[in-house]
Specification:
The protein is mainly α and about 100 residues long. It has 2 helices and no strands.
């Protein structure tokens, strides 16, 4: 059904081109110019839409990466604070042991 419709449209288009060519080269040139203009317009519209979709995907990816980066940075800071506290305790215990051994 769709193929028959496309075929009919193509045949009508070919008839129009043939009639334009029979009349004058000027009309054929104008027809081709119009078809090229419409084709260029459609191609540009497609590319603009594709670019917008690509930018949206990129922005979403960047947001996800930034959120992951912030989450990991927060976890790293928490781990560093825990390690600092643990090292401080170890240092205090070593200082106490060194102080005891120096007194003896």
């Amino acid at each position: 059904m769709i193929l028959a419709y496309i075929l009919a449209q193509t045949q009508e288009l070919m008839k129009a081109v043939t009639e334009a060519a029979d009349k004058s080269d000027r009309w054929l040139f104008l027809f081709v110019l119009g078809v090229c203009g419409i084709s260029a317009s459609l191609a540009i519209r497609y590319l603009v839409n594709a670019l917008a979709a690509s930018q949206a995907l990129h922005n979403e990816y960047v947001k996800t990466q930034m959120a992951d980066s912030i989450r990991l940075s927060t976890q790293l800071n928490a781990a560093l604070e825990d390690n600092t506290v643990a090292l401080k305790r170890v240092q205090d215990q070593l200082d106490k042991q060194i102080g005891r051994s120096e007194r003896s």
